[in-house]
Amino acid sequence: MKKNPRRKGLYVVAVATMVAATSFAGSEGVAQESAWDGVFTEEQAMRGQETYRQECASCHLDDLLGDGIAPLLVGVPFSFRWSDLSVGDMFMAIRTTMPQGAPASLSVSGYVDIVSYMLKVNEFPAGDDELPTDTDVLESIIITEKP
Fold first, then answer.
1. Where are the domains positioned within the chain?
2. Phi-psi region of 104 (alpha: psi -120 to 50; beta: other; left: phi over 0)
């Protein structure tokens, strides 16, 4: 029986489509969601506020408006910096650079709580589940402009 080259081409296209769809969902098959979907809890944001006050406010100030050298963490500067990036990108940037002089010195959950607080003060809604510490999940949550 003679092989049909057209059929082989369709098979290759089908496999490529499945691979692309799987890649789009993330390396672990985690579907993307928006930070507007309520990805942290009020309690977590409150813990983050306390950790922020202890570890971050000396430079970024209690109101998150920065001290002139430390950047603002609210409003347009926040949106400009993080729009279309993931919560995981924010987590990694904070964890690898802050606090200044002692990066990565907080617990992973402490950094995630701070991220939750920053989302809260930037008017992202709280939800029923805490923002997890799993970096694959954090990478799947995209920060966008308000819908």
1. 40-142
2. left
**What global pTM score does this model have?**
0.80
The burial of 7, by beta-carbon neighbours within 10 Å (0-12 exposed, 13-18 middle, 19 or more buried), is given as exposed
Q: pLDDT, tens digit, for every residue of 92-106?
A: 999 999 999 999 999
**Contact 31/25 with Cβ under 8 angstroms?**
yes
What amino acid is encoded at 94 in this protein? Answer: I
Q: Give me the CATH topology for the region 40-142.
A: Cytochrome Bc1 Complex; Chain D, domain 2 (1.10.760)
pLDDT digits (tens, 9 = 90+) for 21-57: 333 344 445 679 999 999 999 999 999 999 999 999 9
Element of type H or E holding 33 = strand 33-34
* Residue 115 in tokens: 């991220």
